[in-house]
Amino acid sequence: EPKPKAAFGSVGRRIPYRILHVINQDGESLGNMHRAEALKLMDQHDLKLVLLRENADPPVYRLMTGQQIHEEQLRRAEKKKASPKPGVVQKELSFSSAIAKNDLETKTKQIAQWIEKKYHVKVTIRQAK
After folding, report:
1. For the chain, what percent of residues have pLDDT higher than 90?
2. Quick one: 75 and 46 in the same domain?
3. Total structural domains in the chain?
4. Residue 70: which domain range?
5. Is the residue at 61 inside a domain?
6. Has residue 110 been placed in a domain?
C-alpha cells in the first residue's frame, strides 16, 4: 500500500505503480506507460517525475524540470497561506457609535483578551440613530 504524499515534489525512482499515466513538461498527455518506460523517458530528457493524482486509475505523473517543481511548490504554499486555517476561532463584536465610555472600555478589554488567545477578532461599529 503506497503512502500518501505529504508534499509536492519529485518522487525519484520510488514509484509503487506498474502502469502510469504520464504528462510531459508542456502539459501534453503521453498516455499510459509502464514504470520502466517512464523512468527511461525521465532520464533521457533530464526531468523529474511528480505525482499529480494518486487516486486516478492509473495514477497521473508529470515530467517536470526542477524550476517547474519549485514554482509549483511556491504556488501551493501561497494558496495554503491564503486559505483560512481550520481550528482558528473568529470572534465578532458589534457595538453602536453612541456607546458609553465604560461599555467601550469593557469591550476593549474583551478584545485584548481574545487577541492574547490568538483569536481572529472582527469589530463592527454601527452608526447611532
Report:
1. 15
2. yes
3. 2
4. 19-82
5. yes
6. yes
75 plus 105 within the same structural domain? no
19-23, strands of its sheet edge to edge: 29-34, 19-23, 60-64, 48-53
Q: Are 97 and 57 in contact (CB under 8 A)?
A: no
Instruction: Convert the pLDDT of each residue in 75-108 to its tens digit.
Output: 888 888 776 666 777 888 888 888 899 999 999 9
Q: Are residues 70 and 104 in the same domain?
A: no
In terms of pTM, does the model score above 0.70?
A: no
